UniProtKB/TrEMBL annotation:
It comes from the Bacteria. This is Glycerol-3-phosphate responsive antiterminator. One of its GO terms (biological process) is glycerol metabolic process. It comes from Candidatus Caccovicinus merdipullorum. Gene3D superfamilies: Aldolase class I (3.20.20.70).
Length: 186
C-alpha cells in the first residue's frame, strides 16, 4: 500500500498517547494508528496489538523512550516490530524508514517563514512518503505546502472539531491526525 492509498483508507488517523487511547482506537473506524508513546521494551507489544486489529501501525520514533535520534532507531523498529512506518521530526530517520520499505512521515512544525523554508528544503532533500504539518489548523500554510509538493499531507495538532477537519481538507490536506478521541468517530 502506498501513501495515498493509506490515507484514502483512513482520512482520520487515530493518534494514541496511552493504553486507553489505544483500546479506544480499536473501536473506531480509523485504519491508521499513530503510536505516540511507549519505550523500547513495550513498543513491540503495542504495535502487535494494532496489527492484530488489522490496522496500520505507525510509530513516532521521537516519542519512543530509549530510542536514539540516529538512523539505527529505525532499524530497531523494523527488526523488532511489525510497524508499517515511522513519524519523526528528524529527516534522516524518515529517509532511513523509506530506504527500509517503511512509510516515512516527516512531522514538521511550521511556526514562521524560516520553518516554512526549512520544510521545503527537507521535502526536496529527503523525499518523505508523507508530511505531517503541525499545527493542522492553519489553512494558509496547508495551501502553501500543497502548492509546493504532491507528497500527501496530514494535518495534525490542535484539531478540535469537525469544522477544523473540514477546513484542513479544504486547504489541501489528504488526512488529519488527532488525539481527540471523539473525532475518530465522525
Amino acid at each position: 500500500m502506498r501513501a495515498m492509498e493509506l490515507l484514502e483508507s483512513s482520512p482520520v488517523i487515530a493518534a494514541v498517547k496511552d493504553e486507553n487511547g489505544l483500546k479506544r482506537s480499536f473501536e473506531s473506524e480509523c485504519q491508521v494508528v499513530f503510536i505516540l508513546y511507549g519505550n523500547i521494551c513495550s513498543i513491540e507489544g503495542i504495535v502487535r496489538q494494532v496489527k492484530e486489529q488489522g490496522k496500520t501501525a505507525i510509530v513516532h520514533a521521537d516519542l519512543t523512550a530509549g530510542l536514539s535520534q540516529k538512523e539505527v532507531a529505525v532499524d530497531f523498529i523494523r527488526q523488532n516490530t511489525q510497524a508499517d512506518g515511522i513519524i519523526s521530526t528528524k529527516p534522516l530517520l524518515v529517509k532511513r524508514a523509506v530506504e527500509l520499505g517503511l512509510f516515512g512521515i516527516q512531522r514538521t512544525f511550521i511556526i514562521d517563514s524560516m520553518a516554512m523554508n526549512t520544510t521545503k528544503k527537507q521535502i526536496d532533500a529527503f523525499r518523505p512518503d508523507l508530511i505531517e504539518v503541525m499545527p493542522g489548523i492553519m489553512p494558509k500554510v496547508l495551501k502553501e505546502i500543497r502548492a509546493y509538493t504532491k507528497i500527501p499531507i496530514i494535518a495534525g495538532g490542535l484539531i478540535s472539531d469537525k469544522k477544523d477537519i473540514m477546513a484542513a481538507f479544504n486547504a489541501g490536506a489528504d488526512a488529519i491526525s488527532t488525539t481527540k478521541e471523539e473525532l475518530w468517530f465522525v
